[in-house]
Amino acid sequence: MSGAFALLHPPASPLPPFLSFNRISHFHSPPPLSTADFWRVTSRRSVLISKASISAMTHDEESTGSVKKQLCKLFEKSLRITVPSESDVEPLIAACAPKFGDYQCNNAMGLWSRIKNKKDNGFKGPPSIGKVIMDNLPSSEMIEKCTLAGPGFVNITLTTSWMAKNIQKMLTDGIETWAPSLQIKRAVVDFSSPNIAKEMHVGHLRSTIIGDTLARMLEFSNVDVLRRNHVGDWGTQFGMLIEFLFEKFPNWEDASAQAIGDLQEFYKASKKRFDEDPDFKGRAQQAVVRLQGGEASYRKAWAQICEISRNEFNKVYQHLGVQLEEKGESFYNPHIPGVIEKLSNQGLVEESQGARVIHIEGVNIPLIVVKSDGGYNYASTDMTALWYRLNEEKAEWIIYVTDVGQQQHFEMVFSAAKRAGWLPANDNMYPKASHVGFGLVLGEDGKRFRTRNTEVVRLVDLLDEAKNRSKSALIERGKAAEWTEQELEHTAEAVGYGAVKYADLKNNRLTNYTFNFDQMLNDKGNTAVYLLYAHARICSIIRKSGQDIDELKKTGGLSLNHADERALALHLLQFSEVVEEACTNLLPNVLCEYLYNLSENFTKFYSNCQVVGSAEETSRLLLCEATAVVMRKCFHLLGITPVYKI
Questions:
Q1: Which one, 5, 50, 155, 423, has least CB within 10 Å?
Q2: What is the 3-state secondary structure (H, E, C) of 369-421?
Q3: What's the pLDDT tens digit per position in 618-641?
């Protein structure tokens, strides 16, 4: 890391408190995306915009930040005139290569396949359909021109003055005016979910930061997000832990976290005792019964162990700037019998080899909801949690962020919920449940990331190492003499933690990725350090101008006469649709790709367009500020703290 940074402003304020919304129970359709579309990872692909999405927009075209939706609204009017018999056809709009224009309408070929065999359809082929679509477009200040290409593609060029006006409007009204408009009001994002009495390790990193980013993007889109930490705080292991606590600390109620020490080692010691001592094993098994029976001393000991573990988890969450509301397995436990009874009354639960199961079509193994010994398991808890989130919390979208190894389990849970009528059979309707899978974190040897003694890496140690490396690089560049200790600490945290987050989020979450500090902290290439450097440089340009940027927003004007000014402006205007795409497909890397390309576009603009001291200084300073504002919002959505000074 050869660059150096400092914070000039405190980190973003904490997330807003949870809000209370009215109950929402109806089914409705999201924008239709095929399975292939869902997993495809391209930054500028064509996405169908449903009629519901279009009608959800306000009548004022300028009130939404999504250029794509505004174009869809115009082309929908044209399509209704062009092919009135095909009233279910929805606009298919995509950003296109610069040599063709800014956007493209791709409906002509699909329409021709639908109407070519109908008599007197009035068209000779896709090009003639495209021509009429183009001719029937209502006039709009946002479109400069349209041209026809190939088999009916309508290429669209936006009006430069309209682009400038919309960017300037964002600067005065705020980036929130560019927030996407989604069709849901409330979502649950279930992420992180460590097990009590075990350390959070590098395997929890991906769930925690991917889940946090998805929650942030949904929150920015004005969705009420219930951030759920489904911790493993219930089960047979607690009998072992409680009995070991009683044995090691006769006055256990007075035992502090310091006395108990490393909870991970405490767990290992109790497990060793459980495996080697039959008498201890018997007492531990009895302790489970007494805990689940509600005996006061056992409940209190359980709560003490949970609290010690919870405090350790919170250290990681504080490092990462992540907020969660804990509703662990124990929360749902009292609701399980009632949910199993409801499923049984529907005839979904069957006896199988002493267990009670739900059969899933197309899957060889059943979903076991009550074990043969009468106990409950993960499926019991997950079915109950899903029921609770749909019926009590009234969530319209429940998102589970776990490793890909749990995909089949959740698909079976969702299938059982569909059989029960909790979820619609059509995956393109709400309420819906989605599993967000992710791959492994690998070491440089290509194997699962571990320490030299084969232990899984503790997450808190990993984050501390990132911060320390960042701080060392800053000190080497002499920043300890220039900055206060607080500036040094804050900047090291912002760069170190940001580097770890971005290195994960920039990848397609389904793939494995290699954890490498040197690559993460490199200030060249697609890294957080490079992007933070770019943001700090923009802030430096504005400061060195000596201009009051807030005053310029009120009095100055933005013009886009140079090709690189226009290219940067177009990329800025695509921010809203990119966030919507990342939300809809649950792919944070789409936003990372947008942010990196934004930085590249700015570099090209700055290389070819003098800012300070030029005749266009005011306009170009406003374009610099717009870029910085969008970059900061991207950083916020990714959970990264921006830095303002090199």
A1: 50
A2: EECCCCCCCHHHHHHHHHHHHHHCCCCCEEEEEEEHHHHHHHHHHHHHHHHCC
A3: 999 999 999 999 999 999 999 999
